[in-house]
Amino acid sequence: GLERALEANRRLRDLQHDDGLPVEQADEAKLQGGEILMALGRHKEARASLNALLDRKEAAPALVQRARLHLARSWAAEPDWEKAASCYQLALADRRAPLPAPALIHYSLG
User: Fold this and answer.
1) Residues 32-90: tens digit of each pLDDT
2) Rounded to 10 degrees, what is the CA torsion of 19, 22, 28, 33?
3) How far apart are CA 44 and CA 62, in angstroms?
4) Residue pair 76/107 in contact by the 8 Å Cβ criterion
5) Does the predicted model carry a pTM greater than 0.85?
């Protein structure tokens, strides 16, 4: 199941732009890798994958928003509420892409 999906995702993430992988597809793979790792409960590894996406300043705003929301959820699961709140606030402040269910983010912030 998820372990096989993670392995396939890792192979995709290991490809480089020089290997013909478009940067947009690499960004999607980083996000999906974070999502799979979150589903496996491996939050620290998920944050590494998600942060790799956020480190690329040219990443698509919609992917950035999704990565921030996953980061917030991963910190909340630890629980590190301060870091989770910071990620949620960054997502709310970034108006480049719409957020899914912003009311839930406000609810999570209290």
Assistant:
1) 999 999 999 999 999 999 999 999 989 999 999 999 999 999 999 999 999 999 999 99
2) 10
3) 22
4) no
5) yes
